[in-house]
Design a protein that fits this description.
homodimer, mainly alpha, Arc Repressor Mutant, subunit A, Tetracycline Repressor, domain 2, DNA-binding
Chain lengths: 196, 196
DNA sequence: TCCACTGATGACCAATTGGTCAGTAGCAAC
DNA sequence: GTTGCTACTGACCAATTGGTCATCAGTGGA
């Protein structure tokens, strides 16, 4: 990911590097502007190449999305552990992850794409949700697990929307630390909910 | 007499009716497919007119959005009343409203449009949030009002996303009644939260 | 130095789409 | 019927964009 001004005369012979640069550029672009508003030329420009090359490497815009967006799911491994402190761990892991990418996490890209009815993104999102359900399944006790996990997911989606997509209001200006605290409390309320 | 096959035979001389039909079609289309994926021709077709007429009436796609999407704000009036039962009232009002429109409420259209970085939609959304904050302000006691209202809003956004945009998972298949109950509990947890 | 290989370019294409506008057709009054 | 009005149509346009491909140029090997 270089941000050179003009089309630098790139050293050649580094196809893998360029491929990675394109993927990185795509991730950022999709997260920042959504699938529809991101053009292949956008991505190419950010990566310092021509759009022809992008298509040559990835075949189509959709395949580019597919290659760029799926994030290392490893983070969710934090779920394992004492159910008592689970809400706090989820909150911390979520906030840290978003902060690391400066708000252009693939999760944001996926939400944006799903909101535009991109079939590909919906499929990815489904997989992601199923995976995370599976993780929770071993950790959380009590009935109606699915419903509570879905509610936690929805809450996180809403927070992400407010903070990283809409980017306005208290949730957007709140410090990471305060967000972790607030999120911990709210997630606890949802997760420990004993329903009807 | 030429009575076209597909397009309605439409009696003329009812410009207001047609205008309304276009607005209705626009609302549905924007809610179902998002701003970017909705074409002026889509809307025109749904309303049984040509895209030329749509543009003639509303000037541009953006102005059409602006004319169609802002929803009657009246619903939020339900907020007033005993703070004790507020969560339940919010939950009921929300679920009823979404159910009435069969999931193509303007709120959905706005979320989709905001997720695509439509400036117009972001402005509308800002106004809507400010209005609702104002309503809550008279009703809810305690400190950090803004943060708690924002959290409630975020939760509702997330639920809307899961149930009416992504349309998959427990939140999507849950009955209206169960959703009201679950939402009531979760909103209560957020609203009554005594924070740091 | 010359050659072969392939990463990379950029011209080109077709489809889509928002937007314009001159002309048409339905309606009412005379 | 004729005339006048205007809602409405559909042809047209320009810009955008995803995608293709002939051609070029940097690189390593002989």
């Amino acid at each position: 990911m270089n941000q050179d001004a003009a089309p630098t005369k790139k050293r050649r012979r580094a196809p893998e590097e360029r491929r990675a640069a394109i993927l990185e550029a795509a991730r950022a672009a999709f997260a920042e502007r959504g699938f529809a508003k991101t053009t292949v030329r956008d991505v190419a420009h950010r990566a310092g190449v021509t759009h022809g090359l992008v298509l040559r490497h990835f075949g189509s815009k959709e395949q580019l999305f597919l290659a760029a967006v799926p994030s290392p799911r490893t983070l969710m491994a934090e779920v394992a552990g004492d159910p008592k402190t689970l809400p706090a761990r989820i909150a911390r892991a979520y906030v840290r992850r978003m902060a690391e990418s400066g708000g252009s996490d693939p999760f944001v890209a996926m939400l944006r794409a799903v909101a535009s009815e991109e079939e590909t993104a919906k499929r990815l999102f489904t997989v992601m949700q199923e995976d995370s359900l599976e993780m929770y399944r071993h950790v959380i006790p009590g009935p109606k697990l699915e419903e509570r996990v879905a509610a936690v997911g929805a809450h996180l989606i809403g927070v992400t929307f407010s903070r990283y997509i809409f980017r306005s209001g208290p949730l957007a200006s709140m410090s990471d630390e305060q967000l972790v605290r607030q999120l911990t409390r709210h997630l606890r309320g949802i997760l420990l909910d004993q329903d009807d």
